[in-house]
């Protein structure tokens, strides 16, 4: 039964939610990049 549950969960993940996940990931990545840039500037 667990297998059918996981398959159903994969079916629920339509492109829209995947795009949302990617946008959240990119936002986190940009935030981390900005933080790294601030640290680099402070070290100068």
Walk me through what this model shows:
By secondary structure, this protein is mainly α. The protein has one domain. The chain is built from 2 helices and no strands. The protein is rod-shaped, with a radius of gyration of 18 Å. The termini are far apart. The mean pLDDT is 74.
What are the main properties of this structure?
91% helix; single chain; 44 residues
Poorly predicted ranges: none
Biggest sheet details: none
Count the DSSP helices. 2
**Radius of gyration from the CA trace?**
18 Å
Q: What's the quaternary structure here?
A: single chain
Content of β-strand: under 5%
Structural domains: how many: 1
- Helix-residue proportion: over 70%
Q: What's the number of extended β-strand segments? A: 0
What overall form do the CA principal axes indicate? rod-shaped
Amino-to-carboxy terminus distance: 58 Å
The whole-number mean of residue pLDDT values reads: 74
**Protein structure class:** mainly alpha
Q: From N to C, what is the helix and strand string?
A: HH
């Amino acid at each position: 039964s667990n297998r059918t549950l996981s398959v159903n969960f994969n079916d629920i993940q339509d492109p829209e939610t995947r795009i949302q996940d990617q946008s959240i990931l990119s936002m986190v990545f940009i935030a981390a990049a900005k933080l790294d840039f601030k640290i680099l500037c402070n070290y100068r």
